[in-house]
Amino acid sequence: MNDHTSSEFNRIIHSDHHDPFLVLGFHLVEGETPAAVVRCFQPSAAGVFLLSEGKRQEMYKIRAEGLFEITLPGCREFFPYRLEAHYPDGATHQFDDPYRFWPQLSDYDRYLFNSGTHYRLYDKLGAHPTTIDGVKGTIFRVWAPNARRVSIIGNFNYWDGRLHQMRVLGASGIWELFLPEIGPGEPYKFEIRTQQGDILEKADPFQFFSEIRPRTASVVRDINHFSWSDEEWLAARREKTTYRRPMSIYEIHLGSWRRDPADPARFLSYREIAAALIPYVKEMGFTHVEFMPVMEHPLDESWGYQVIGFFAVTSRFGTPDDFAWLINECHRHGIGVILDWVPSHFPTDGHGLSRFDGTALYEHEDPRKGAHQEWGTLVFNYGRKEVTNFLIANALFWFERYHIDGLRVDAVASMLYLDYARREGEWIPNEYGGRENIEAIEFLKHLNTIVYDRHPDIMMIAEESTSFFGVSKPAATGGLGFGYKWNMGWMNDTLLYFQTDPLFRKYHHSSLTFSLLYAFSENFILPLSHDEVVHGKGSLLSKMPGDSWQRFANLRLLFLYYWTHPGKKLLFMGGEFGQHSEWYCKVSLDWHLIDQDEKNRKLHQFVRALNNFYRDTPALWENDFNPEGFRWLDFNDVDHSIISYSRHGEHPDELVVCLFNFTPQVHHNYKLGVPRPGRYREVFSSDSAEAGGSGSTNPETLESVNEPFGQAPCHILVRVPPLGGAVFKRE
C-alpha cells in the first residue's frame, strides 16, 4: 500500500473526505490481470460479507477502525451487490451499498444552479424518495461549497457522521448521496465539517417537512402525490385579472385564529382549520385569505417571520398533504389563498442557514451588509447567484407545488435600502455611493419577471413602506415588477386620524385627502394588518376615541371609508367583530364577544353586509387603479370634518356616491354633490339601527337639484349621520 492510498484511507476513517467514492464502493483494478475491489467502512461491525448472485464472500478488515475490503480476481465489469454486516452483539444487517451508485445530478443541472437559473431547484436539492437501478431509497443533495466533508445523519445510522459521507460534485459545491432503504418519515440532518475542522449539524435548506419544535431535524417527505381537485378554480383564475375583480382579504395567523376550546393550548390542524375557516370566510364575504408565514420556524413568537425551512410547511398544524388539503378546499369553495413570504432575512439558529458550511454562504461576511440590526437576523446575499436561485425557486415552489394564488413579500423596504434600520457607520454605500441595494433590486426584478412569466395569473404583493418608484410597475419598464403594493402611507395616516378626538379632526383633514394624491401611482392594497394591533398598539376598536357607542361607530365609519376607498382590501382577523384586546399569538381570538355583546355582534354582521355590498358593487373595484374610477365631490368641508366622493365602474351608469362624517354631529338638509342629475337612494349606511347606529339614515328617494355644489354639477339634500357614512346610488 502506497502513501497516497494510506492517506485516502485515513481521510475516510477520520470522516474528512470530499469524495469517499474514490475509496469506497466498487473499483476495477488496473493491471495485467482483470480484477476488482469492493470496500466499505463499517466502524461498528465485527465482520462484513459481500452478497451477489447467491454468493456470500467474507470481506477483510484492512484497518482496525472498520475499513473492510475484498478483491475479486477475474472481474471485468461492475455488478450489483449487497453487504451483510455482523455486529459484536450477534445482530446482522443486510443492505445495498450506497457507494455502488453513480452520480445522479446532471452537469446541466449543476450549470443552471451555479448560474442562478435553475428554477425547479426544489426537484433536485434536498431529500427525494426515488428508485435507482431497481433499488428504492432517498437521494440527498445539499449545497455546501466550502465544506471539507458532508455526511447524512439520522436514526438509520445512529446520528454517526462517519457512516454516510457524501461526495461533492465537481466545482458545483453540491454534495450528493443515495441511501437505499431510506424512505418517507425518516428524520435526518447534514453533518458538515468546516475548513477549520468544526462540526456543524444542519437542517436541510430544501426540507419539505420538519420535526415539530423544539426538535430540529428535517424529515424525508414525498409531496408529489396529493390528489388536487381545484381545476375549476385555476381555470377561472386564468380567465380574468384580479385587478378588475373584488378583493377583500382576510389575514390570518393559523396558530391563534381559533384554538381547541377543550384544550386551548392545542393548535388546530390544517384540516380542522379548513373545516371551520372556509364556511366562516364564505359567510363573511371575503374573497381571499392571507396566511401569515406557514414556512417552518422555531419560535412561535416570531409569527413565522424568522424562517428555517423555506420549502417546508410548519409541522405545528400537520403534514404537507394536510396543508395541500386546506388550499384545495379553499379553492373548491371559491376562496383565493395568499401566503406571506420572507426573502429578506433569516434567523441565526445554529441548525439553519447561518454560516451553513462554516462560511457566510447565504448571508454576507461583513455584518454591515449581512446583519439586520433591528431584528437580530441575517440578510440574504443577493449578489450570489446560488442564493437568488434558492429564493426564486422557493417562490415558484409555493405556486407550483401548493397552487397558491399569491405571495405577499415581507419587508421589501429593508431589502431596497442598505441603511435600513442602521445608523451611520453600520452600512456600506453601493458602488455609486448611494443607499440603494442594487443587488436586491435586481433580484426583485428577476424574481417577479420569472414568476409572472411562468404564472401570469398569480399575485406578487410587496409590503413596501417607502416612496420607492415603480414597485408595482413592470420590471421591463423600470419598475420592480410586483403586481401590488401595500399602501402603508394610507394606513398610517388613516389610523392616526381616527385616533384623534373628533373635536380636533378638522385640524388633520389633510390626512383624509392626501392619499388621493398618489392613490393611482401604484396598484395598492389597503392593509389593516396584524402589525397595527401588536406591540402596545392595541386593537382597532381600542384605537377609537369616545365612549363605547362612539368607538363602535368610529370603527364602522372606518370600515365603510376603507371599503369604498380606491384599492383592494386586507383586514386582520378579529377586526371584523371588534376584538377588544391586542392580538397575542399564543391565544385564540375572543369569539365569545359575538355571542355575549350586542355591539360586537352587530359589528360582525355589519362587516359581513359590507363585504357583500362591496362584492355586488362593481363601482367599488372595477377601476381601483384608474383615476377615472374616483371623483372628489367635496373635500373642503374642513370645519365639519365631512368628505364626499363618487366611485365609478366600467359602465357609465355604474356609480355610487360616498359621504362620511367624522364627528358626532348630525346634519339635516346637507348639500351632497352628485356627479349626474337624477334620483338617488341610500343603499348602505354605517349608522343604521341594524348595524348598531343611531338610525340617522335616508330612507326616501332623493331628487337632485340642478345647482353645482363642491366639485359636483348638482346636489341632493341628505341627512348626515353622526360618526357615520352613507353610500347613495343613482336610480
Strand order of the largest sheet: 17-20-23-27-28-29-30-31
CATH superfamily of the domain at 107-219: Immunoglobulins
Q: How many individual helices? A: 15
Number of strands: 39
The span between the termini is 99 Å
Summary tags:
Immunoglobulin-like, 731 residues, 6-stranded antiparallel sheet, 15 helices
Task: Explain what you see.
The chain has 731 residues and is an alpha+beta fold. Helices cover 22% and strands 27% of the residues. It has 15 helices and 39 strands. The longest helix is centred in the middle third of the chain and has 18 residues, at 385-402. It is elongated.
Helices and strands in order:
Layout: H1 3-13, E1 25-28, E2 35-41, E3 47-52, E4 55-58, E5 60-63, E6 67-73, E7 82-86, E8 92-96, H2 107-114, E9 126-132, E10 135-143, E11 149-154, E12 167-168, E13 174-180, E14 187-193, E15 199-202, E16 218-219, H3 231-239, E17 248-252, E18 259-260, E19 263-267, H4 270-284, E20 288-291, E21 295-296, E22 309-313, H5 320-332, E23 336-341, E24 345-346, H6 367-370, E25 371-372, E26 377-379, H7 385-402, E27 406-409, H8 412-416, H9 438-454, E28 459-462, E29 484-486, H10 488-499, H11 510-513, E30 524-528, H12 540-543, H13 548-564, E31 568-572, H14 592-596, H15 598-615, E32 630-637, E33 642-648, E34 655-661, E35 667-674, E36 679-685, E37 702-703, E38 714-720, E39 724-730
Parallel strand pairs: 17-20, 17-31, 20-23, 23-27, 27-28, 28-29, 29-30, 30-31
Antiparallel strand pairs: 1-2, 2-6, 3-4, 3-7, 5-6, 7-8, 9-10, 10-13, 11-14, 12-13, 14-15, 14-16, 18-19, 21-22, 24-26, 25-26, 32-33, 33-34, 34-39, 35-38, 36-37, 36-39
Helix pairs in contact: 4-5, 7-9, 13-15
